[in-house]
């Protein structure tokens, strides 16, 4: 749920990096480099502000990146993770006399096999331009194996040695080893033909997709969207040949984009445009909103018919349980503080018409989680103008009589439906007084879902 999903802590990413480095050292297996490549090019670098000045503690897959430079564990772990990259980009084994090219981005390594000295220089703009050249500098002719990693994502591989095409059998996530006598100035060129791929989501990402370019995850950055478009209302046009689009790389500015045919869907119109997707590591770098899992144009609308499907959800306090109001998953406002009012709702950038509101209670805990109705029942409020005042339009009268300490027999997941004459609004929220249970020093509420619908031939009550 936006920034509060608390996924992929930078310290955890770096620990995963350390684990895979050690497993690779112990086994020499490429599958651990595959994991390193995926983690480094995506979550590790996505946690770092591009200028290197700040890091995210947690890096969400959508929302706004919470860059910061306050003293914490992740601020030190992130740079440590980056500093470890040279330790596995190019490695060598003295016993087998083998040099392993694990990453194909620009790097250099000096290697000694006894008296024989080898310098390896890798040149290229990998992973965005998937063609790299390996230059060998030797003090004398030497026999050794040059092991080229074939990434797990690679569908094919082209290889040249001193500009002559070489056809050797290879397997994904394995090394292709060139055993020969090498001379100073020898050159090996490696190419991985590539096109964008669509990864379909499941579970809470069902109906959405992420775009991959080799090992790199791409997503939407609000800075690249057409005027008036928002990430939540943008979908990948599944009817276009999205997978044939090529990444655009500017080797002067370093800017990387992937043009993708997209649709903008709202409650009133559908519009198609090309949108420049950007790598996860660059998305949201300017402080704007971004989104990795993007809706597919062929996905069904919200199965509940939620007319605020494309709206931004919010609550009074983010609490310590992250969920999704639209997905009917539990969210709470617990922050160990006492509050007089809590709310859950949606805000839209265009007016929405509806006549039925369904509120789902989340869960009752020993120290709260429900609304205290000793004063007033939970209230339904709307905004009839964008950014305007909240106006009450009714009470959820079927909500049980509760107090700050007693939940009135409220059941977890209990549903409350409110029908009303059709109204049009930019926002809606359910507000009420949070309960404290057995801890009067704090109070909080919970919600298991908020569904707002337009029902034909509905009768208001």
Question: How does the SSE layout of this entry go?
Answer:
Layout lengths: L9 H18 L2 H17 L8 E2 L5 E2 L3 E2 L4 H11 L2 H4 E4 L4 E4 L3 E9 L2 E10 L5 E8 L3 E9 L7 E4 L2 E2 L8 E9 L4 E5 L5 E4 L7 E6 L2 E6 L12 E3 L11 E2 L6 E10 L4 E10 L10 E2 L2 E3 L15 E4 L15 E2 L9 E20 L9 E2 L6 E5 L7 E5 L19 E20 L11 E8 L8
Parallel strand pairs: 5-9, 17-22
Antiparallel strand pairs: 1-3, 2-21, 4-5, 6-7, 7-8, 8-13, 9-12, 10-11, 10-13, 14-15, 15-16, 15-22, 16-20, 16-21, 17-19, 18-19, 19-20, 23-25, 24-30, 25-29, 25-30, 26-29, 27-28, 27-29
Helix pairs in contact: 1-2, 1-3
Key attributes of the depicted protein:
disordered N terminus, 4 helices, single chain, eight-stranded antiparallel sheet, six-stranded mixed barrel, mainly beta, 11% helix, 39% strand, 30 strands, 461 residues
